[in-house]
Amino acid sequence: MCIFYLVLRALDTVEDDMTIPNDTKIPMLRAFHTHLYEEGWSYMYSQENDRIVLQKFYVVSMRLTKTCHFQHLLVLKILILVTGYVDIFFLSQP
Fold it and tell me: CA-based, 20 to 30 A from 53: which of 11, 19, 43, 83?
């Protein structure tokens, strides 16, 4: 459960960070589920208060792949959540 929270916290940090331009943010959000398996992935350019979770996301990813027995369900849930979020909040705006 803690890993799921940290993944959601990272997603929310990307979404909330107004210094990340939408042409960077949207592809990052859409591909976020792939970063769960990408060894060493982090994002160092966030200006949000919770940026540490993005800067050290490789730790979350490592723990997920080594200890989480339901990781495929987590990845699927993240993919569905982000796809709907991006479509509704970013692509529907004029």
Answer: 83
Q: Would residue 38 be called left, alpha or beta, if left means φ above 0 and alpha means ψ between -120 and 50 degrees? A: beta
Specify burial of residue 72 (Cβ count, 10 A radius: 0-12, 13-18, 19+). exposed
pLDDT digits (tens, 9 = 90+) for 32-57: 888 888 889 999 999 999 999 999 99
Q: Distance between CA 69 and CA 44 in Å, rounded?
A: 29
- Residues 70, 72, 78, CA angle at the centre, nearest 5°? 105
Residues 6 or more apart whose CB falls under 8 angstroms from that of 27 comprise: none
